[in-house]
Specification:
Blueprint lengths: L1 H26 L3 E5 L2 E3 L3 E7 L6 E7 L4 E4 L5 E5 L4 E8 L3 E8 L5 E9 L25 H37 L2
Parallel strand pairs: 2-9
Antiparallel strand pairs: 1-3, 3-7, 4-6, 4-8, 5-7, 8-9
Helix pairs in contact: 1-2
Length: 182
């Protein structure tokens, strides 16, 4: 009987241990910030993508390409190494309007942010690019299919751990009753 309890305890420990890294990974979805979110033509904004655990590099691109460039290199595209889960690039604006900065961090992870470029500080920009659903400093909208996959990998082990835990409590309590003669 003690061998069965030991196996149940080991199984419970393994399930919980395997579920914890998955839960931590699901909570660390990439997010993007732009600082400052509004700049004047010729100025520079810093775009930072964080939450990039397990990613080696990020490919940044500007849309429209003639709207600005990444520093250094003066190109509308840049490949940036990820350091401590974060990739950072500087964008210099070449014209008034919205600049869409997209960051590709793997096959299915694309993060976007908008840099607003104005003629003078406080002026309203006239956008020549279509409006986007991106938010400058908000977390990127997760892919629904990927989110469902994460949910399965977190919930299934947790439910299994609860079931095994309840089973272990029942087995232990039944074995104690049997020894006392209850």
């Amino acid at each position: 009987m003690r061998g069965a309890i030991a196996r149940l305890s080991l199984a419970l420990f393994m399930i919980v241990a395997l579920a914890l890294p998955t839960a931590a990974h699901a909570a660390s979805a990439p997010r993007v910030t732009v600082s400052p979110a509004e700049i004047v033509v010729g100025e520079t904004a810093t775009v930072t993508v964080s939450g990039l655990l397990g990613v080696d590099s990020v490919r940044f691109a500007l849309e429209p390409a003639e709207g600005g460039s990444f520093s250094p290199g003066d190109s509308p595209e840049a490949e940036v190494a990820v350091t401590d889960g974060e990739a950072r690039v500087e964008v210099t604006a070449a014209r008034v309007g919205d600049l869409l900065v997209s960051a590709d961090a793997g096959e299915s992870t694309r993060i976007e942010a908008t840099v607003v470029v104005v003629a003078t500080p406080g002026a309203v920009a006239t956008s020549t690019s279509p409006p986007t659903a991106s938010n400058d400093s908000a977390q990127a909208e997760p892919d629904a299919e990927a989110e469902n996959g994460r949910l399965v990998f977190v919930l299934v082990p947790l439910i299994a751990a609860v079931v095994i835990g309840i089973g272990a409590v029942l087995v232990i309590s039944k074995s104690r009753r049997g020894r006392r003669g209850d």
